């Protein structure tokens, strides 16, 4: 290859890396990953499955290491590794993609989702494109049998994809949850971040409660969504009756809520959580079959002095809720205090690759935090992940040797060697 050709190739690589960094930043802006299902998006996948008479329809979002489904119909998986995703090709090409028979297409014939369950043969996907033009995911339909898909059907799929994007845009505009009156997820995060910085500046204590209604899915399944909605609204009202005006409650999604308690230490926060638990369980809800009572599991954490990032607090509180449910539900569990960020550590959302076996083995990851001394990574699985590896962040054009210092679920903290 001549020097001019090499220069052009390098420019193309740099352009692709910059474009991917911008795409991931656009995805992060919507703050939708790992949120519970929402009827606005489930309605679209139901419509798509009916219109095109297919067994599978998905709203798929692609981050640095995985394909995650905001809505799924006919597929039990919540996410899959990025490398095997048909939708990555749709995003890369930036246009609707139709595969009439994946088993006959050399790009996909050996794909694990073609060879094994769910035995995909037909795929059609339309990009979910932001107003700025970034493709953050797809609306796709799939079948286990080969089939054709004409131009009119492609246009209809594109219109449905636009409806999904309009739903994502509306989520950004809402400051309060229309059903419960709690702050929206985005508004709660913004208010919590502001309160954490204020607490750090004045050296005040601050705590957070994560609250999840127990067995709520069975409420919806047994009594219907109207009763479920009433349970959510009354549960929030019961909580508000126990909170101060300075406290903040937000709906993170589904039946999950968070409460921020300014100027509150761990002991007092645990007392508040217990009052919330009792208030929720004391509520009675009318159903056609008689009165219903629900309970909640709560996780409580306090921020260490100087902590300003809401994400570690939410993670620790969520882990405490998980323990509360494992111990029998209807209880409060104290979590580990969220530590102050290391100097220079900042929140990021970048695509990365974990390299080991002298570069012969790679695992996609999403870099969620960076500092001069380490990083926080999300991966699809920690199975087979070595203790030491190289971390490549293409957007920053760096490769750093790393050592794992902490693993929790699919989040990995590393320090640079």
UniProtKB/TrEMBL annotation:
Lineage top rank: taxon: Bacteria
Domain GGDEF: 204-337
Gene3D superfamilies according to UniProt: 3.30.450.40, 3.30.70.270
GO terms for MF: catalytic activity
Coiled coil: none
PROSITE patterns linked to this entry: GGDEF
NCBIfam families assigned: GGDEF
Protein name: Diguanylate cyclase (GGDEF)-like protein
């Amino acid at each position: 290859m001549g020097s001019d050709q090499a220069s052009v190739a390098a420019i193309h690589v740099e352009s692709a890396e910059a474009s991917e960094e911008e795409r991931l930043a656009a995805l992060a802006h919507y703050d939708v990953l790992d949120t519970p299902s929402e009827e606005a998006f489930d309605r679209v996948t139901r419509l798509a499955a009916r219109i095109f008479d297919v067994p599978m329809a998905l709203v798929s979002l692609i981050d640095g290491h995985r394909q995650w489904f905001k809505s799924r119909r006919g597929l039990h998986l919540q996410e899959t590794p990025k490398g095997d995703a048909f939708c990555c090709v749709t995003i890369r090409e930036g246009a609707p993609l139709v595969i009439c028979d994946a088993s006959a297409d050399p790009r996909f014939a050996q794909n694990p989702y073609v060879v094994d369950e769910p035995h995909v043969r037909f795929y059609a996907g339309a990009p979910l494109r932001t107003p700025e033009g970034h493709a953050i995911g797809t609306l796709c339909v799939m079948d286990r049998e080969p089939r054709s898909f004409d131009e009119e059907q492609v246009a209809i799929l594109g219109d449905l994809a636009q409806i999904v994007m309009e739903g994502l845009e509306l989520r950004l505009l809402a400051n309060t949850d229309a059903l419960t009156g709690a702050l929206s997820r985005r508004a709660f995060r913004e208010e919590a971040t502001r309160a954490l910085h204020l607490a750090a500046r004045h050296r005040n204590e601050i705590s957070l409660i994560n609250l999840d209604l127990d067995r709520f899915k069975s409420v919806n399944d047994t009594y219907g969504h109207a009763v479920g909605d009433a349970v959510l609204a009354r549960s929030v009202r019961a909580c508000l009756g126990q909170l101060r005006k300075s406290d903040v409650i937000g709906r993170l999604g589904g039946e999950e809520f968070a409460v921020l308690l300014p100027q509150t230490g761990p002991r007092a926060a645990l007392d508040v959580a217990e009052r919330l638990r009792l208030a929720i369980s004391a509520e009675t809800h009318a159903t056609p079959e008689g009165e219903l009572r629900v309970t909640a599991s709560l996780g409580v954490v306090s921020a260490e002095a100087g902590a300003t990032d809401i994400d570690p607090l939410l993670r620790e509180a969520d882990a405490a809720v998980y323990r509360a449910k494992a111990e029998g539900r209807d209880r409060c569990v104290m979590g580990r205090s969220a530590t102050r960020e290391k100097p220079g550590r900042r929140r990021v959302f970048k695509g990365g690759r974990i390299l080991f076996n002298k570069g012969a083995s790679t695992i996609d990851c999403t870099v969620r935090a960076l500092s001069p001394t380490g990083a926080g990574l999300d991966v699809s699985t920690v199975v087979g992940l070595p203790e030491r590896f190289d971390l490549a962040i293409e957007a920053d054009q760096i490769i750093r040797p790393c050592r794992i210092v902490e693993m929790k679920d699919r989040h990995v903290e590393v320090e640079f060697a």
